[in-house]
Design a protein that fits this description.
- 38% of the residues lie in helices and 15% in strands.
- The chain has a 4-stranded antiparallel sheet.
- The chain contains 5 helices and 4 strands.
- Helix 2 crosses helix 3.
- The chain has 2 domains: 45 residues; 74 residues, Alpha-Beta Plaits, CATH 3.30.70.3460.
- Strand 2 and strand 3 form a beta hairpin.
- By secondary structure, the chain is of the alpha+beta class.
- It comes from Pseudomonas lini.
- Probably forms a complex composed of NirD, NirL, NirG and NirH. All proteins are required for the total conversion of siroheme to didecarboxysiroheme.
- It catalyses: siroheme + 2 H(+) = 12,18-didecarboxysiroheme + 2 CO2.
Length: 152
């Protein structure tokens, strides 16, 4: 995909941190020397094209409560149905299919570990499938980013 200059500038400049202020998109526009409408239209175009998957914060999970990586071994014919059901839980950040015995993976967050355990138990009751619970033992911060170059 060929990205235009504003798209490249937005990705290069803000993939590792948006302005922390009341009007972040307005501040992004000021920094890039354009109008906020241009920023919003560009982000919308990238979202619609599938170039942009998410705009949002990444929290240090241990400061915001509890979380776990979980997985289910779902029969192929039930995968879509179970994935849609799992996504209805407000504690589920996202879920995705993998080619493995455990083929549906998701991240659960909640105020404490007991809450996470209750959600996992409810998911087991709802689906008839036993979740694999993989809480983080050691955090590794990988600052993944992609410089697109020539963005100024």
């Amino acid at each position: 995909m060929n990205l235009d200059l504003l798209s490249r500038q937005l990705i290069d400049r803000f993939q590792h941190g948006m302005p922390l202020c009341a009007e972040p998109y307005k501040e992004m526009a000021r920094i890039l020397g354009c109008r906020v409408g241009q920023v919003m239209a560009c982000l919308e175009e990238m979202d619609q094209a599938g170039t942009l998957s998410r705009i949002g914060p990444v929290f240090e999970h241990s400061r915001a409560g509890a979380s776990t990586l979980a997985a289910l071994a779902v029969p192929a014919e039930r995968l879509q149905q179970v994935a849609e059901h799992v996504s209805q839980y407000p504690e589920v950040n996202h879920n995705y299919a993998r080619e493995h015995f455990y083929n549906l993976w998701f991240v659960l967050t909640g105020p404490d570990r007991q809450h996470i355990e209750r959600v996992l138990e409810q998911l087991e009751k709802d689906t008839g499938l036993m979740p694999l619970d993989l809480p983080m033992l050691t955090a590794y911060r990988i600052d993944l980013g992609f410089a697109l170059g020539e963005s100024s």
